Amino acid sequence: MKDRIARIIDDALRRAIVEGRVSVERLPPIILERPRREEHGDFATTIAMVLSRQARCSPRELAGIIVERIDSPMVSRCEIAGPGFINIFVDRAYWWDTLCEILNRGDDYGRVDVGKGRKVQVEFVSANPTGPLHIGHGRGAAVGDSLANILKIAGFDVTKEYYINDTGRQMEILGRSLFLRYRELLGEKVVFPEDHYRGDYIKDIARDMISRYGKKFLSSSEDEVLDRFTHFAMSVILDGIKKDLRDFGVDFDNWYSESSLFERGLVMETIEELRKMGLIYHRDGAVWFRTTDFGDDKDRVLIKADGSTTYFASDIAYHRDKLVRGFSTIVDVWGADHHGYEPRMKALFRALGRDESTLRVIFIQLVSLLRGGEPISMSTRKGEFVTLREVMDEVGRDACRFFFLMRKADAHLDFDLELAKSQAPENPVYYVQYCHARINSIMEFAVSRGVEVPDTPERGCMERLALKEEIDIIKKLAEFEEVIERSALDMEPHRLTFYLMELAGLFHPYYNRHRVVTDDVPLTTARLSLCRAVMKTIAKGLNLLGVSAPEKM
RNA sequence: GCGCCUGUAGCUCAGCUGGAUAGAGCGUCGGACUACGAAUCCGAAAGUCGGGGGUUCGAAUCCCUCCAGGCGCACCA
User: Fold this and answer.
1) How far does the CA of A484 sit from the C1' of B51, in Å?
2) With 60 as the cut, is the pLDDT of residue A381 above it?
3) How many Å apart are A290 CA and B2 C1'?
């Protein structure tokens, strides 16, 4: 609808130019907005104000010239307002047509093609396999997963990936932590270092170890068994992470292991490639990547003086491989505390001759957990963090995912456990879900009364949808695909959440004021069609957010 | 010190690539269930868009500056 109106304006403007009424060098795209106030029409454009200087006439005069040339049955009237706005009122017949189109699209409604089949990879969560997922990872999982869903329906070819940091010092520490707990549980006195993983989950894994191997490793030195302990701990933890994510409704296309980068020689290969480009140098016994050539504020070490590689070395090899795999856009979802890492990663892309916009980093801000308005203290160091599992078990998956998507990713989120699980009106999750369940009830009621619920819309009946509320709902439905496009292009899934709350916010009052199923058969048919369209749109939208659309609650 | 994020109603937040008189929800107060689900709806009060400059026909939105909070500035991951 929006595109069609834009074309009508564009045509009118071009006609004015051809007729010599205005002279304009460059024609900007026609931008339409939805005015806040309804007396300003269904759409409005500022094109006359934008072009007035170029066209050397007043905005209102230019608007008049354009409006005179607008000729379409879709536009019932046009007004020039204020400093030069052109307000456009769409004929209701076209809103009825729109409703029919939406219903005819069926399950396909919402599918758009801004992605044009381009390959995009979304890498998210990627939590180190050193402990269970906490609430912050949950937010990243919700954002990454629904973003991937939205990109998919917007026409991108999406791959979801989890990067496993399974090498390096932290892995050693994990193995040592397990070995220490193992010995401790078998009665040895141990000193547990400050920087080791202190969470109780390590003890649980140690118990597993004991039940499987007994005291077998008690007499072994750490060197002899460290690999085994590390590997054991990691695989148990990783299995737990996978289960948590699966239960959260998140599944990945690919689990990419850091150690595979080394096995395939990609880390050294990447460093070699940069060396050939003259971007590598040695200093103080270390090997450096000259990222300052590409906007970073200092150069970065790839190989330390002790011969081991840095995390960054793995990461550039990993991201180079993403490019090799043919992704045209690479999305990384990171915790906001990693934002300082972005410039050096962008530097890699530029070094490899790619536009830095190829990499889109989405930062996930912290989640503050509250209970009834009171903050719950969290400290990873002491091991008393709140896990995703705990929150999911307490408030449920739907509420959890919905809450994570109620804010834009880079804004702090207050997550109140009591609010999230309350079935009271102030809980927005249920507001949207209830709308879906309620419409389902209407459908069932209609069937029970012997009313036929139409599968395909009957255009003739639609004219009975004459109420302002009904037209408003159709207009909102017509926005759905625009919301999908914007959420995809701006990579902001929270917009979809807001859209669904708005749509439900139009439907509930309508329901309370007007009856759907009455003795008036054509009116009933029309209203059931409207209901069906709302129901489908809400179901589709919730589905993209990873939230269920229940038929009963 | 430098960089990034945030600052909008009592609270939590929207506000699309600058547009018209600033938008929700919660909370507060007052109302609505003998016809499709009251997890709903109706009504009321509530704002110096952190402060100050600038750009422009027009700024919550862009630029500068200051203030407040958070987070980063490793041969850690």
Assistant:
1) 38
2) no
3) 20
